[in-house]
């Protein structure tokens, strides 16, 4: 079993919503990533979604796409990301880490080899944006054997028949994309979100995390009232982009403060 299910069980017992921030590994520079991960935890993150840099991040808007470009300029690849997780695990054995990325780097390494390396590094879940559930049965089985949760996206347009397939394959939680479009999109409607989550839960017993369109404490609190987890990415990556790599300590403080603001809003529900 990965760390993800116990995390949700503990939070459910406390009547709290999980906070899962996203950052791109290697942005703004490779040596900053592990420190930023610890800063996120210090600010109240319950798990971390770590983006694997990729040259064609099709699901990501301009903010995160630029973060991928910055990381790739530092030649950060999948092996480097696994090393970062391994370094993070030297002092944090509790916080779940989910890798989010695209299938090409995993296929290049080999799914079986990747699963073994990810397990050894301390990865808990893998969300592969461009791996459709209809083609994921073998991969999901390999991940399960390595005690890694395969996590899948559900979109506003996903039909019930596909949600059922996802429910059979997924573990840990499912990730609901709250908006049509790419990461960083706007105009989140919480009433429609609540209705959609009700539909998903009718077909899937796993916790539901919600991402895309969560920008600040206000939107996080609204989503947290109906979701099991709030996933926030572009707003955090934008802070990292604006501060750059000049002062690592200041960057960590700003990231921690941003997380603490979101955590306080969620806990005030």
Notable features of this structure?
269 residues; alpha/beta; TIM Barrel; 9 strands; globular; single chain; 12 helices; nine-stranded parallel beta sheet
Describe the structure.
With 269 residues, the chain is α/β, with parallel strands linked by helices. The protein has a single domain (4-267), classed as Aldolase class I (TIM Barrel), CATH 3.20.20. It is built from twelve helices and nine strands. The chain has helices spanning 4-13, 33-42, 62-73, 78-89, 103-109, 111-121, 137-145, 160-169, 190-203, 217-224, 234-243, 248-267; strands at residues 18-24, 48-51, 97-101, 125-128, 149-151, 153-154, 174-177, 208-211, 229-232. It has a nine-stranded parallel sheet. α2 (33-42) packs parallel to α12 and α4 (78-89) packs parallel to α6 (111-121). The two termini are 30 Å apart.
